[in-house]
Amino acid sequence: MNVLLTNFGTAGDIVPLLALARELRAAGHDTVMACATSHAPFVASQGIAYAEVGPDLRDEQTAINQRWIEDESASASTADMHTLLAPLARAIPETYETLRALARRADVLISGPAQPAARMVHETTAVPFVSVQFSNFGGIGTPALQAATAALINPFRARLRLQPLANPVTLDANSPQLALYAMSRHLLPRPPAWPAHLHIVGFFFLDQPDWLPDPALRAFLDAGDPPAIFSFGSMPHTEPSRILALIDEAAARAGVRAVVQQAASDPDARVGPNLHIIGFAPHAWLFSRAGCVVHHGGAGTAAAAFRAGKPTVFVPHGAIFDQTYWAQLSRDHGCSGEPMPFQALTAPRLAASLRECLDRDDRRHNAARIGLQVQMEHGVQTARRAIEDLVRRVGLADPLHV
Questions:
Q1: End-to-end CA distance of the chain
Q2: What CATH number matches the domain at 215-375, 3.90.180.10, 3.40.50.2000, 3.40.50.11190, 2.40.50.140?
Q3: pLDDT at position 311, please?
Q4: Of 67, 77, 205, 324, which has the highest C-beta tally within 10 A?
Q5: 3-class secondary-structure state, position 314
């Protein structure tokens, strides 16, 4: 089976699909990941074939996320959304043509919701199509976001003589053949009203069991009680040194040791002896050694925290993201308290949340229970079997699609 996987976005939009690609490859299927060039090195490091799709829009993505973090009113304005997203939408025709050409020899096309060209390729070529949602509800975004993306994407769909979509990068990104939700049924059970082709399969984890920490991190972890782990993923911060100082103060107030994971280290950063700064480390390895986890609430980071079975402090960076929703699920299952919006983050508030997170037995017990449940799920294996079944049912694709 020839499998083409694609998505647009940051690492959090690509990594889960890489986990699925590795599972499919291990089962003997040829896999290709089609995405922006910025992801090419990591795709290659996982042994997955890479194909370039669309321009590299990292700067535009960072600017958009930064605007949403700093000015939440932008997420409520269709006009603002249209202006922000227009540079991304201009890449759709080129992305569609490239993806269509790649799909000519694919037996199945698999896409995340942030790649609207994928459904268009399915609709114009009849290549079997599988969508993968990483949010519990697949409907992330405000009405303004949905209206703006519809206004930007539907004109190109009309050029292809396709029907308009109301939510082209949310619910309408779902495949009419097989729609997979890569999340845990233990956090939110499958709604009874869902059609039969929608499935909750479990989180997708890209484990790296051979990864080893550097000696400094190992020494810090071995030197005392399990620390609080801070990880805000790819969320951009205009004042990273201020955030680091705030975390340092909060950890000192709470009397805890802390490890801060950040994308780029600051060689001039000055922090206390009980705070250690790191770059990349697999969340599966890092979170399992935590006393508690403090993170933004992105789907992948939240999934890793749930699987680690650790109590959590959620710091959502903006209402437009799905971060608050994951925080609410965690709170409802007793694994965390109320989320603390990034815009309201202070050292005293964070210190109080750290102490509450670490001191409450019920939080630890609830988090451990959810962790065991999530560990028993095998999301990529379940997804792979569903994909294989779809291709068997529709038949292996012709060598060339329409």
A1: 18
A2: 3.40.50.2000
A3: 97
A4: 205
A5: strand
